[in-house]
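Reviewers of the previous submission asked for a worked example of the structure-prediction workflow described in the proposal, so we include one complete record here. The input consisted solely of the amino acid sequence. No template or homolog information was supplied to the procedure at any stage.
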Amino acid sequence: MTKLLLILTMCLSTALAGPATAATDKDVRETIDEATTTLAAAGALGFAWINTENLINQAEKALADNRVDAAATLARQALTQAQNSIVQSEYADAHWQEMKPD
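From that input alone, the workflow returned the following structure tokens.
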């Protein structure tokens, strides 16, 4: 049950990382940079999610195309996924005994 709740929480938080207020280029750049750094940290833990890098690349392209709102949404989604991958790593570290076969 705990595993299901964790997965549902991560999925919901990723889905809710949608648009907020109008973002500036600087805000989006900072979010992209934070997502990239967080993804690297998740990768070092062995828990980087596959789609996160794709979202970062899409955010970079949208920003380059001056689609700031779209870039902001993608960057927030990437950051949320990167953060959730670290949460997944922490959960796995705390509960690895439960994952061992009997």
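The first helix runs from residue 2 to 15. We consider this example representative of the routine output the project will generate in years two and three.
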